[in-house]
Amino acid sequence: MNPIITLESPRLQWIGVSLSNPTTTAIPFGTTVVIGRNGAGKSTLGRIIERGRNLATNRVRTSATDLKVTRLEFNDIHSLSEGKVTYMQQRFESSMNDEVPTVSDLLPRLDSTGMATMPFDMTAMSDKRINYLSSGETRKLLICRALCGQLPDLLILDNPYIGLDTHSKAELDGALRHLASQGVSVMLLVCDPADIPDYATAMLPLENMTVGALVTGTASELRRAASHLFEPTAEAYAPQRIIPPTVNANVPVVEMHACTVRYGSRTLLESVDWRIMPGERWVLSGPNGSGKSTLLSLICADGPQAYSNDISIFGRRRGTGESIWEVKRRIGYISPEMQLYFGGGSATVRDVVARGLNDTVGCYTRLSDEQIETAGQWIDALGMTHLSDRTFSTLSTGQQRLALLARTFIKEAPLMLLDEPFHGLDATQKNTVRRIIDTIAARSGAAIVFVTHFPEEVPEGFTRSLRLPSR
């Protein structure tokens, strides 16, 4: 059978970015995995196949002249509301505006007939306004929207499993198998051999912006073939801290009593009690939509109901005159929400990391030589030395995530809230970050909360857990 896509140009280009394609690459019908480390060129290839195959610089032959290609990459999951807000509290409070759509508004076929073609069962959240959706829930919605109309000939999903819990991941795999039975070819862009699904039959490796030779075989054979792309790096280390700890070992870092978050008839959290002592390491888990990020937003005072609940941070009751900067000064925080709206402007990676010491994004104060040097040490530790002078906004999603982790780690705060910290990282980087978290936890006595859907991701020494129920 003829391939669905053939890459014929020795060099493929997309808006100033080039991929080397040393030999003609024929991509077969069925399920193909495009795999490589962060920054290898996977998303660029996806964009070229979707929208750049008719450019004069790109000779890309398709199996049909009217080939319908649909691509999803989830960079702005809240664009569904046709507006973009900066902070979590603005997004929540915008629910007072009747123009914010519900899931059923965006899925006109959310009925017994249309559900047959949907990859996920969305009925339970049909009346939920989209600004209440978790990262994983919004991914489900975007995928359903892409598939509820005319089915494409080729569906390209960029990092499709990020943010999905185990059940949702299985649902997506089942839906993609079903699409294959209907003649839809699927291309999955992933950065971890563990994400190669059992039904994949071909793999296209990318390394250093170069398209490799297509590999075919069983899923286990493809995973073994991909492993060479993710060789371990040198032993990870964490630079010496520059800010001494300022925590009373006998005072809870966080104390929450019966914390509840409601908007109208929608309950996001209900009666949560939680006490975190200095040095404790917690795993926070729960299915998509259970309220994990909402709970952390209360601690950081980013949630609009952070001041209407019984919360004490470092022994001080929330709402007793402290400023937002006092709250954040002793908290290191990273989340998918933060990355979506970070921006970074024209700042370089070095500036973004260094300004984590001041909890700022813009150039409000001049960085000291010591701060710049410390930022460089963290950039080196995370293997990003070659990216230190790059503008943050030009990085791949995974590279941005790594830079924001360096920004989070740099002040080695006494409380670290790591909301899905491996979100978008490739297999090598996950191992590096895991070892750095181990080092920080062992030497600093920081209290750390690690949010994940997958127990195998949890670093060593995390002995306490809180699991939120499904909502």
From TrEMBL:
The keyword Kinase does not apply. Keywords: ATP-binding, Nucleotide-binding, Transport. Residues 5-233, 251-471 form the ABC transporter domain. The keyword ATP-binding applies. GO terms for molecular function: ATP binding; ATP hydrolysis activity. SUPFAM superfamilies: P-loop containing nucleoside triphosphate hydrolases. It comes from the Bacteria. PANTHER family: METAL TRANSPORT SYSTEM ATP-BINDING PROTEIN TM_0124-RELATED (PTHR42734). This is Molybdenum ABC transporter ATP-binding protein. It comes from Paramuribaculum intestinale.
